[in-house]
Write a structure and sequence with these properties.
Elements lengths: L23 H18 L13 E6 L5 H12 L3 E6 L11 H9 L5 E6 L4 H8 L4 E7 L5 H15 L6 E5 L6 H12 L3 E5 L15 E3 L2 H5 L4 E4 L15 H8 L3 H4 L7 E3 L12 H4 L6 H23 L3 H5 L3
Parallel strand pairs: 1-2, 1-3, 3-4, 5-6, 5-8, 6-7, 8-9
């Protein structure tokens, strides 16, 4: 099976480190390609040869369900040899550093290295100092999670037909969220109006410089919105208490049916996962008819296929996609 669109024009960067590196054209182009993959993924024969002979290593220093498994599926669907390096059973447990681990893996000549790390900027450091291959940021600290923002944008675009002019509320732990940061960048680039909603303790100072509207009151922040994106409390990045209790947080900042009714009647409910039901989102809403949380997971595979394909193509001077008959 050949790849889905002949006119694919991959972005020219050697790595995908953040949405901040992409133009609106790059984002739209990746979304177009990912949309084509999403259509192809629904067909019974969804195995391709675009990355045949390429090696992809997934190196996750933080836990993951969605991102790691969808990068693995995406690589395999494109025909790559995919290896998941389990940090829990690696020499990281014996004190090996991020850079030494990366140098070791780089010596095995992978084509694609997908990395998640708790340190903001760690993936960029590895890409600039160590890797001779394409590096994908699968989430670095509270900095960026670019493929999450791309899959969120694709989910919105498929449901609403556009992103330009939509009103999107991003609610919850904005301060510790790489998902919030990447989404603010991509949604702003694509012409959406973004509201951020959080208590002062979870709102970064100077966030308004990113061009968002800042709300401490959730009812006001979600009013009239086309999309409500909920975020969990990222307790692993907190030192000390940022909210009095989970129950109190839900009272003031949880998405329930009453608050959802303040948004537009056809508003989408989104969550990158993992969800903490009863803390930032009520089960009735998470599992309700306006929820597109499962669509987000499905679009994750398509977006990661588009990203892996584009980066592999850059590695090989554009011959990769061409050779596959695209
Ligand atoms: N959205 C997301 O990054 O989920 P995982 O932590 O399960 O990969």
């Amino acid at each position: 099976m050949t790849s889905p669109a002949a006119e694919f024009d991959p972005f020219s960067k050697p790595h995908l480190l953040g949405i901040s590196d992409l133009s609106a054209f790059d984002i739209e182009n990746l979304l177009d390609r990912a949309n084509a993959w999403a259509e192809r993924n629904a067909l019974p024969d969804n195995k391709h040869a675009i990355l045949r002979g390429r090696t992809q290593i997934n190196l996750f220093f933080e836990s993951s369900t969605r991102t790691q498994s969808s990068f693995e599926i995406a690589g395999k669907r494109l025909g790559a040899d995919v290896m998941n390096m389990s940090v829990a059973s690696s020499s990281v447990k014996k004190g090996e550093t991020l850079l030494d681990t990366a140098v070791t893996l780089n010596a095995m000549r992978p084509d694609l290295l997908v990395v998640r790390h708790s340190g903001s900027g760690a993936v960029e450091l590895l890409a600039r100092k160590v890797a001779n291959c394409a590096v994908v940021n699968a989430g670095d600290g509270s900095h960026e999670h670019p493929t999450q923002a791309l899959l969120d944008a694709l989910t919105i675009r498929r449901r609403k037909g556009r992103i330009q002019g939509l009103k999107v509320a991003i609610c919850g732990d904005i301060a510790h969220s790489r998902v919030a940061r990447s989404n603010i960048l991509s949604l702003a680039a694509l012409g959406a109006q973004v509201n951020v909603v959080a208590p002062s303790t979870l709102m970064p100072t100077a966030i308004d410089r990113m061009g968002v509207n800042v709300f401490r009151n959730m009812d006001e922040g979600v009013e009239g919105c086309d999309v409500i994106m909920m975020l969990r409390l990222q307790r692993e990045r907190m030192s000390g208490a940022f909210v009095p209790s989970s129950r109190e947080f839900f009272h003031y900042y949880g998405l329930d049916s009453r608050r959802l009714a303040l948004a537009k009647p056809d508003a989408l409910v989104m969550h990158p996962g993992p969800m903490n039901r009863g803390v930032e989102i009520d089960s009735v809403v998470a599992d309700g008819t306006q929820s597109v949380i499962r669509d987000q997971v499905e679009m994750g595979v398509a977006v990661r296929m588009a990203v892996l394909e584009a980066l592999a193509d850059n590695l090989h001077g554009g011959d990769n996609v061409k050779a596959a008959g695209a």
